[in-house]
Amino acid sequence: MVLVKVEEKYEYLKDILLSLLLIGIAFIINTGISIKGLYMDDLLMWSTRRGTGFFRYVFPHEMRKFRPVYWAVTWIYQGIIRNNLDFIVPINILIGAGIAIAIYFFAKGLARSKTMAFLFAAMFLVSRFSYYDIGQYLGLMEAMAMIFAFALCVCLYKYINGQANRYFYYACIFYFLDCFTHERFVVLFPMLIFAVIVKKEYRIINASVAIITFIAANYIRFAALKSFIPEGTGNSKVSETFKLSSFFASVKTEILYLCGINTGPTHLNGIDFKDVNIAVKILIIIGIFAFIMFICKSVYSILMRSKKIEFDWIKNILLFLGFIIGSIVSSAVTIRVEMRWLYAPFLFLLLLTAYIYGVDKKITVRKSKNKVIGTSLSRIFHVSFVSAILVMVWGFCMLIGDMYYRGYYNKIYLFEGQNRANSLANETYYKYDKDLSNKRIYIIKNDFKLSDFDALEFFRAYEPDIREDIVTFIDNYRDIGVVNEDMIVLTEDKKNNEYVNVTDFLRNIKVENIYGHYDDGWTDEEAKFNVMSGEHGQIHFEIMYPGELTGNESIEVDANGEKETLDLVSNITYYEIDTTPNTLIPIQMKSNFYMPDAKEQRGDKKLSFILNIKIE
User: Fold this and answer.
1) What is the largest CA-CA distance in the chain?
2) Environment class of 132 (CB within 10 Å of its CB; exposed 0-12, middle 13-18, buried 19+)
3) Contact 257/339 with Cβ under 8 angstroms?
4) Which alpha helices (DSSP H) does 407-451 contain, by range?
5) What are 300-318's pLDDT values in tens digits?
6) From CA 74, how far away is CA 62, in angstroms rounded?
7) Percent of the chain scored above 70 by pLDDT?
8) pLDDT bracket for residue 201 (50, 70, 90)
9) Which are the contacts of 306, defined by CB distance < 8 A and separation ≥ 6?
10) Rounded CA gap, 472 and 486, in Å?
11) DSSP class of residue 451?
């Protein structure tokens, strides 16, 4: 008895260690993903909470989608993390790791193998479909919807396999919650009816409960939105955009995604399969072949090697298939296919694989135990050896493929915008010790098309009471004069898709050379440059001519449209301009002399004199 307890503790310890390993994998694989600033839907969602009470936030007056379960959670969630936006990704990673651990424990029972269960959980974590769940604030919504769908599946599995009737009611509750977390999961209703059909007890009562749950969910949605048909993505309406041909094309795209083949526009997946490295492409194809062989081998075992085909096998396979099909169909009715919608179907595909593996293992091991001389690998290792190899090959190839695809996340439109938001945060909020209360931010050009609303709300996410004119868009740095300590000036690096802080650079620039004037002071016979006047508007010139004067040397000075001729009476001549303070002054100089012994010529004209400029 003591020995059994020790063995059980050892098994528990292995489960704990594998769970910790999954958490470690989750953080390692998502290294490089961060949220420093909010972008697009995240920013809009964040901004709607400000000044809004809980019930008004959860049940707003006007809305296109009705997700009160998610809205209730995010209202609390946002209140907890406040302006600590860099907490979002670590929290998302922990949520994803938690789902993976739940998959491990459930799949362990399905597959009758810790090793396979761990493989499936790791595949879930590494999957490229997780990009939205991890890298966006709204990833919490996708994760919640998947958790409820997963819980619904687990409860129905327990229910149809002999567990207490209460699991069916739990499933109805999870279905109801899922409908109001993300509306696309309303399509999972047939799985409730399926469970009622395959289970003999309480059919009328449970069917009534399921139908009432479905009607209640849709009635509430209709009362809120005045429509039974869910809204599509990108502000589209399913009722207006749905086409049967597009639907089947989307289903095909989703199936290819699940196989490891990226298809569709690259701004949605990062890289198309045809552009994938040839070695990775071969691995993905090998993985697909291994998975097909595993399914064929398992079907053969069920049909030919088992004494009889058990009804439990069929109903459980159909259960997982139903969840896969339902979650695929729900994502194929709108205008495009985004990879994040494949995360739930991929989860159910992993569960289906785990279950089929467990059935095949049971058949194979039972067959080997009936042999007179039981020395097969299946009997020795208590495993279907061929199936184990095929599943491991599939898992390995999928892991490699997904890790490769992850290297192209930055090509996905969400990450392009998120990277810009992160750079904007790094160059402002984090660069100035998280204090922007007295700052004015100037953005040159605004080629990234940051709207006035987004610019203001972006910084309100850190400081709700930030000044409304925190951001100003300008065409040229000359528009702002001298850059003082309370100003932040940013420009856009379109090549690297980021903002660049040029504040210190512009603060130190007093002279902008256009032509003919050089950093060491040497000036050509003709020169043009801009000078930033100082606080008092005084610009002092020191003109040095290192040659011999003849007495006829003069310089025509054009300062901001006002011309004056300066005669040189000595080798060092001083000249002063009084002008508007903190203003960019265009200056042009033309001399009637040059250095006859100069050993170089830098421009079209010859070197004439040395010019030093002092500003007050």
Assistant:
1) 122
2) buried
3) yes
4) 413-426
5) 888 887 777 888 899 999 9
6) 18
7) 95
8) confident
9) 363
10) 13
11) -
Pick 470 or 234 by higher pLDDT.
Answer: 470
CA angle 191, 197, 198 (to 5 degrees): 90
**What tokens were used for 294?**
């595993």
Alpha helices in 83-202 (DSSP H): 88-111, 114-126, 131-135, 139-160, 166-179, 189-198
Question: Which string of DSSP letters, residue by residue, matches 179-222?
Answer: HTT-GGGGGGHHHHHHHHHH--TTHHHHHHHHHHHHHHHHHHHH
CB atoms within 10 A of CB 508: 8
- β-pair type (440-444, 471-474): parallel
Q: How far apart are CA 273 and CA 270, in angstroms?
A: 10
Residues paired with residue 562 on neighbouring β-strands, in sequence order: 559
Residue 528: partners with Cβ closer than 8 Å, 6 or more residues away: 514, 515, 516, 517, 586, 587, 588, 589
| Residue 418 banded pLDDT, cuts 50, 70, 90 | very high
Write out the two tokens for 565: 């001729």
Is 597 within 8 Å of 588 (Cβ atoms)?
no
Helices 203-225 and 189-198: crossing angle in degrees, nearest 10, is 170
Q: What's the CA gap between 607 and 601, in Å, rounded? A: 6
354 neighbors 123 (Cβ within 8 angstroms): no
Query: pLDDT, tens digit, for every residue of 444-453?
Result: 989 999 999 9
The answer to which of 71-85, 190-204, 475-489 has the lowest mean pLDDT is 475-489
pLDDT digits (tens, 9 = 90+) for 245-302: 889 999 999 999 999 999 979 999 999 999 999 999 999 999 999 999 999 999 988 8
Note the pLDDT of residue 6.
65
DSSP secondary-structure letter at 383?
Answer: S
Residue 321 has pLDDT above 80, yes or no: yes
CA dihedral 283, 129, 149, 298 (to 10 degrees): 0
Residue 66 has pLDDT above 50, yes or no: yes
> Around Cβ 96, how many Cβ atoms within 10 Å?
26
Give a three-class secondary structure readout of 522-573.
Answer: EEEEEEEEEEECCCCCEEEEEEECCCCCCCCCEEEEEECCEEEEEECCCCEE
Cβ neighbors of 305 (< 8 A, separation 6 or more) are: 363, 364, 367
Place of tokens 């008092």: 536
Count of alpha carbons within 13 angstroms of residue 112, beta-carbon side: 17
Measure the N-to-C terminal CA separation of the chain; round to a whole number of Å: 91
Nearest-angstrom CA–CA distance, 327 and 347: 10
Helix ranges (H only) for 301-333 are 311-331
- Confidence (pLDDT) at 521: 87
The answer to whether residues 413 and 338 touch, using CB atoms and an 8 Å cutoff, is no
Query: CA 402 to CA 495: how far, in whole Å?
Result: 26
Write the CB contacts of 172 (distance below 8 Å, at least 6 apart in sequence).
Answer: 192, 209, 210, 213
Two structure tokens written together for 303: 């049909």
Inter-axis angle of helices 68-81 and 139-160, nearest 10: 130
In this structure, the number of other CB atoms found within 10 A of the CB of residue 576 comes to: 10
- Yes or no: say if 420 and 498 are a contact pair by the CB < 8 Å rule: yes
Taking CA atoms, 491 is separated from 248, 444, 495, in Å, by 45, 5, 12
